[in-house]
TrEMBL record:
This is aminomethyltransferase. It comes from the Bacteria. Residues 32-280 form the GCVT N-terminal domain. GO terms for molecular function: aminomethyltransferase activity. Gene3D superfamilies: Aminomethyltransferase beta-barrel domains, Aminomethyltransferase fragment, Probable tRNA modification gtpase trme, domain 1. The gene is gcvT. The lineage of its organism: Bacteria, Pseudomonadati, Pseudomonadota, Alphaproteobacteria, Geminicoccales. Its EC number is 2.1.2.10. It catalyses: N(6)-[(R)-S(8)-aminomethyldihydrolipoyl]-L-lysyl-[protein] + (6S)-5,6,7,8-tetrahydrofolate = N(6)-[(R)-dihydrolipoyl]-L-lysyl-[protein] + (6R)-5,10-methylene-5,6,7,8-tetrahydrofolate + NH4(+). NCBIfam families: gcvT (TIGR00528), PRK00389.1 (NF001567), PRK13579.1 (NF010093). The keyword Acetylation does not apply. Keywords: Aminotransferase, Transferase.
Length: 389
């Protein structure tokens, strides 16, 4: 299908409009900008950077290629930093609900920066090493995140922002074979781990996680060597470049949250379905991070609403903000992400709805342009995860 057919193939609620003019935008460029242009990427402003929303093959083709082989993503706009000090893991635990001190060396944890009200400032990945904790945060939040972290670390600790590094992701069932061609030790890595690897003579820091539901890697590389590394990986026929549009549809099928939409300052981790990311010892009122008492109560009492998956009947797309209705036509929640899932082969959505209606299989309706359209609450992910455990 043509990459210019936005109506037919656009599964992404939150991908930027490809027609947005970037001429006058105050935006930065990642180290891979020239490569994106050379590959025919349609560049748009996103989180303060010019980023490719899609390439000539189109969003649907990119999405399906990542599920079948391997996709290369430029995520250099995200923030990279490290916390140093005598016990960096314990220092980070004063700001997040995740169990960081329980991590082994080179092991990663998904967690959140929380507010005193129990809301989510941002979600992030933290990796523990012997002398520091390595962080990756969202692009749109990174300036605020880093200022917040630096201002609230215990005495004797510091935050070092790594502005001189780029970040490249390789995702899909062929990712291991592709990367291990250049760095054999990559094959032995498991999900949620990180290690230093030499990739064709380039010193990199590589993690194995992902935002697509597929197996894959994230490669932190010196910015001045990012273009060479990306071109090396793209020289493999199994790898194609993937833009923001397919990145969004892949993560939606995987049932993963997008900050600012599915989670934000007004949501807490329990109602967001992220309670699994908080160890039992941290589910207590005196756990020592912002909002611990509020979040502990949410575990004890149960939330009044929950994040759920939705399967609209037919082919109607439920976009962000669509009201979810009960059998009497009353509004019981709203869609936070929605679009067409190319691998799911139909419309899918995520929403917050009243907790008593959150069980999979519950019938609800969606207010689409003033007309109630049937939908069913569904378990997530919509497409099974294929991480290497």
């Amino acid at each position: 299908m043509s990459g210019t057919d936005k109506t037919a193939v656009s599964p992404a609620t939150h991908a930027p409009d490809p027609e947005t003019s970037a001429a006058d935008a105050d935006v930065a460029r990642t180290p891979l900008y020239d490569l994106h242009v050379a590959l025919g990427g349609r560049m748009v402003p996103f989180a303060g950077y010019l980023m490719p929303v899609q390439y000539p093959d189109g969003i649907k083709a990119e999405h399906l290629h990542c599920r079948a082989a391997a996709g290369l993503f430029d995520v250099s706009h995200m923030g990279q930093a490290r916390i140093t000090g005598p016990d960096a893991a314990a220092a980070l635990e004063t700001l997040v609900p995740g169990d960081i001190t329980g991590l082994g060396t080179g092991r990663m944890r998904y967690t959140q920066l929380t507010t005193p009200e129990g809301g989510i400032r941002d979600d992030l990945m933290a990796t523990r090493f012997d002398d520091h904790v390595f962080l990756v945060v969202n692009a749109a939040c990174k300036a605020d995140d880093f200022a917040h972290i630096a201002a609230h670390l215990p005495a004797g600790h510091a935050l070092e922002v790594l502005d001189d590094r780029a970040l490249i992701a390789v995702q899909g069932p062929a990712a291991e074979a592709v990367l291990s061609t250049h760095a054999p030790d990559a094959a032995a890595m498991t999900f949620m781990s990180m290690m230093a690897l030499d990739i064709a003579g380039i010193a990199c820091l590589v993690s194995r996680s992902g935002y697509t539901g597929e197996d894959g890697y994230e490669i932190s590389v010196p910015a001045d060597q990012a273009d060479a590394l990306a071109r090396l990986l793209l020289a493999d026929d199994r790898v194609k470049p993937i833009g923001l549009g397919a990145r969004d549809s892949l993560r939606l099928e995987a049932g993963l949250c997008l900050y600012g939409h599915d989670i934000d300052l007004a949501t807490n981790p329990v109602e967001a379905g992220l309670g699994w990311s908080i160890a039992k010892r941290r589910r207590v009122a005196d756990a020592g991070y912002p909002g611990a008492a509020v979040i502990a109560s949410a575990f004890t009492d149960g939330p009044t609403r929950r994040r759920v998956g939705l399967l609209p009947d037919g082919r109607v797309i439920a976009r962000e903000g669509t009201a979810v209705l009960d059998g009497d036509g009353a509004t019981v929640g709203h869609v936070t992400s929605g679009g067409f899932g190319p691998s799911a082969d139909g419309p899918i959505a995520m929403a917050y709805i009243r907790a008593d209606l959150a069980a999979a299989g519950t019938a609800v309706s969606l207010d689409i342009r003033g007309k109630a359209r049937p939908a069913t609450v569904a378990a997530m992910p919509f497409v099974p995860h294929r991480y290497k455990r």
